[in-house]
Amino acid sequence: MSSFKNVAIAGATGYLGPAVVKAVKEAGFNVTVLLRESNSSKIEFDGVKIAKIDYGSIDSLVDALNGQDAVALVEAAVKAGVKRFLPSEYGLDVSIPSVRAVPYLRAKGLIQDLLKELGMAYTILYTGPFLEWGLDNFFVDWKTATANVWNGGDISVGMSTLADTGRAVVGVLLNPKETENKAFYTTTGMATQNEILSAVQEGRPDLKLSIIHQDSKSSLAAAYEAAKAGRGMEFEVARHFLGSTIFGLEIEAGVPYGRDNDLLGIKMVTPEEFKQLVISHVKK
């Protein structure tokens, strides 16, 4: 049985947060949702505690975190005696130096360094891209009906649904000894860009999709040039960083997609099941 009972979750009203709150609550943990004092979002979660905090005040954070076992806030977590820290890593593998160097990913690497420096017990989860976010924002530009395809589109990579990411968090909490101070790789399913786009077309036969072929090395170089010019956080630049990293840097480094699924309780779906996940999502 897990030694963890109380879990504090920051970012619960964000993109991933609701799925994590749902999974952790349903697994039987006591959940505290941390909200900025200025956050007026309507909370839809039943049976959770709400703690209003000032992210600019360490003392405020410590008061909110006392008695919590897992939370994504480092210095306050150390001060409050939190037992485990799960940083908001997910996605891309910033243990790879060339991935960590990507401008909008650098902060994730610095958080990992800080955890080790402070001696805070941690667990890192690498999930690959979130499938739902990828379909809504990355694989297809829905406004222009275009898709950037890197390195021919036949490289298979792992992706995770939001629900499976929440389940992976639960898997960490249920296995405290096995997951302490380590990184874990979890994946809902594997697919190539071409397979994803084929499923998108099947789910949206009305979509006349234009393909833009990209080379990951050229795309990455162009993204760095744009970043030097002060455009590093523009979405199109971030898209090129993301695409060239997933289908270039991570592949070269041999990311072990889904290696830890069994320990974390994640079942990898079949190619057909993955296809149906894509079709179901884009039909909405």
Explain what you see.
The protein is an alpha/beta fold and 284 residues long. The protein folds into 2 domains: 148 residues, NAD(P)-binding Rossmann-like Domain (Rossmann fold), CATH 3.40.50.720; 111 residues, UDP-galactose 4-epimerase, domain 1, CATH 3.90.25. Helices cover 46% and strands 14% of the residues. The chain is built from 13 helices and 9 strands. The chain has a 3-stranded parallel sheet, with helices on both faces. Strands 4-7 form a two-stranded parallel ribbon. Strands 5-9 form a two-stranded parallel sheet. α1 crosses α7 and α9 crosses α13. The longest helix has 19 residues. The radius of gyration is 19 Å and the shape is globular. The model has no long low-confidence stretch (mean pLDDT 94).
Q: Helical residue percent? A: 40-55%
State the CATH class of the largest domain.
Answer: Alpha Beta
How many DSSP H or I helices? Answer: 13
Report on the biggest sheet: 3 strands, parallel
Structural class: alpha/beta
Please tell me the total number of domains.
Answer: 2
User: What is the CATH topology assignment of the largest domain?
Assistant: Rossmann fold
InterPro entries: NAD(P)-bd_dom_sf, NmrA-like, NmrA/Isoflavone_reductase-like, PCBER-like
Keywords: NADP, Oxidoreductase
Protein name: NmrA-like domain-containing protein
GO molecular function, one term: oxidoreductase activity
